Automatic annotation (TrEMBL):
It comes from the Bacteria. Residues 356-472 form the Glycosyl hydrolase family 32 C-terminal domain. Residues 37-340 form the Glycosyl hydrolase family 32 N-terminal domain. The keyword Metal-binding does not apply. This is Sucrose-6-phosphate hydrolase. One of its GO terms (molecular function) is hydrolase activity. It is found in: Cytoplasm. It comes from Streptococcus sobrinus. The keyword Cytoplasm applies.
Length: 478
């Protein structure tokens, strides 16, 4: 939703209780609230932030402007989880209340150090002329959830970077803390800066250099770069804005991508033998994915189900955006896989053999297998007229297609109404439906489609239109 700057940057304290109550009432009127995905209580949710494990719990914050479906003065909102499936909002927030984050507590990461959680994020600061000064800043969160901001700026904007410099990700490699930060060069190309903490003191960051990851610089900015180690290999997850489509085919306004690399050379600095760039997700929306490694090496990530600069049908209800399921990352024979965590099965309340269903509550999981060399068409959110969200598994042409054109309220149609990926044989799919969210994991997470769909009343069915599919329907907890 487009709102004037004065509204979007109005101080939090100036919003009256009545205004806040009205916003809450608007949200409550939405027919599309999700059951088992994180959504903002009010306003806009964007990037996952500070995804980490601390104090015996998973920690996950999200970017939020609480007063409507627009990108305004951002805060971090804290959630925690024991199982990566059930997340609870704690009421803890990282607010834009310091001179170093006066115009927004922008995205960043977190890492447990001793008995505290170190939060590394971007303070968005603007002067009277609205000129931006991005500051990489820090805070400690203790076990009681008390947040104490540092007063020092940890990394100032370097001379070879424009105002677009943000989203620090801290990680440890061979006992040393490093951070990568998304940047734009003076000639408007996206790149990534690498820093290291001197003597592992998170107050003292020194530039190592520009991280060579085999990028071409065809993008104008790299947002939310993340380095995770998957089965020992460095994998770069990033959101390159303006990436040239000759480099990678994509339809969303901005893609979310990855590269699998062989080694991390901290001296060069470089991600050595980087693969070509790939789409992390083939659906209509997945962006700003954030990953982290557990002490045992497991790699998890979570994505914003939403995109910058796009209006959504929920905007009229004063909220926008959701968090994806948490995905576990693995590599097998050099191939990258993303899968829901095993505990997702705990949401199942009953099961039955897969068959057409005239009516569901749009809160279920399907585990399906398909026939080789056959084309299968499946309609989700199906209505009486035969409209709905069409998933085509085309094992003749070697393609998977998701067509949203007949499903619910249309939006962002200038970016097309279908998405597809090439895949020789799609043998199986795990599909999660949650009211207005669909996440599809094909061939054990080899390809993923994450999307919103805003069904009309009556779009609640499941129908096999052609071909064959067998498997199980699981009712999921509301
Ligand atoms: C990505 C992003 C980040 C920034 C944040 C602000 O969606 O633009 O680069 O830190 O959102 O909300």
């Amino acid at each position: 939703m487009n709102l004037p700057t004065e509204v979007r940057y109005r101080p939090y304290a100036d919003w009256t209780d009545q205004e806040k109550a009205e916003i809450k009432a608007h949200v409550a009127a939405s027919p599309w609230r999700a059951n088992y995905h994180i959504e903002p209580k009010t306003g806009l949710l964007n990037d996952p932030n500070g995804f980490s494990y601390f104090n015996g719990k998973f920690q996950l914050f999200y970017q939020n402007w609480p007063f409507g479906a627009a990108h305004g003065l951002k805060q971090w909102v804290h959630t925690e989880s024991q199982d990566l499936v059930h997340f609870k909002e704690t009421g803890i927030t990282l607010q834009p209340d310091h001179e170093n984050d006066s115009h927004g507590a922008y995205s960043g990461s977190a890492y447990p150090i001793d008995d505290k959680l170190f939060i590394f994020y971007t303070g968005n600061v603007r002067d009277q002329d609205w000129v931006r000064d991005p500051r990489q800043i820090g805070a400690w969160m203790d076990k009681q959830g008390h947040i104490e901001k540092f007063d020092d700026i940890l990394i100032k904007r370097p001379a070879d970077v424009t105002e677009h410099f943000r989203d620090p990700q801290i990680f440890a490699y061979e006992g040393q803390y490093y951070a990568i930060v998304g940047a734009q060069s003076l000639d408007k190309k996206g790149f990534i800066k690498l820093y290291k903490a001197l003597n592992n003191d998170v107050h003292k960051w020194q530039e190592v250099g520009n991280l060579d990851f085999g990028g071409t610089g065809s993008e104008y900015m790299i947002e939310c770069p993340n380095l995770v180690f998957v089965d020992g290999k460095p994998v770069l997850l990033y959101s390159p804005q303006g990436l040239d489509k000759s480099e990678l085919a994509y339809d969303n306004i901005y893609p979310n991508t990855y590269k699998v690399c062989q080694t991390f050379d901290t001296k060069q600095p470089a991600l050595v033998d980087a693969s070509p760039i790939f789409n992390l997700d083939y659906g209509f929306e997945a962006y700003a994915t954030q990953g982290f490694n557990m002490p045992d090496g497991k790699a998890y990530c979570v994505s914003w189900i939403g995109l910058p600069d796009v209006n959504y049908p929920t905007d009229q209800y004063d909220y926008q955006g959701a968090m994806s399921l948490v995905k576990e990352l693995t590599l097998e024979d050099g191939k990258f896989y993303q899968n829901p965590v095993p505990a997702m099965t705990n949401l199942r309340t009953s099961q039955e053999a897969f068959a057409d269903k005239a009516e569901t509550d749009n809160c279920y999981e399907l585990d399906l297998t398909f026939k080789a060399n056959q084309k299968t068409e499946l309609l989700l959110f199906a209505d009486q007229d035969g409209d709905g969200l069409k998933l085509t598994i085309d094992n003749q042409a070697g393609k998977v297609i998701l067509d949203r054109s007949q499903a619910g309220v249309q939006y962002a149609t200038e970016f097309g109404t279908s998405r597809q990926c090439s895949l020789d044989q799609a043998q199986e799919a795990r599909i999660f439906v949650d009211k207005s969210i669909v996440e599809i994991f094909i061939n054990q997470g080899e390809k993923v489609f994450t999307s919103r769909v805003f069904p009309n009343a009556g779009q609640t069915g499941i129908k096999l239109l052609s071909g064959q599919a067998s498997g199980t329907y699981y009712q999921l907890k509301g």
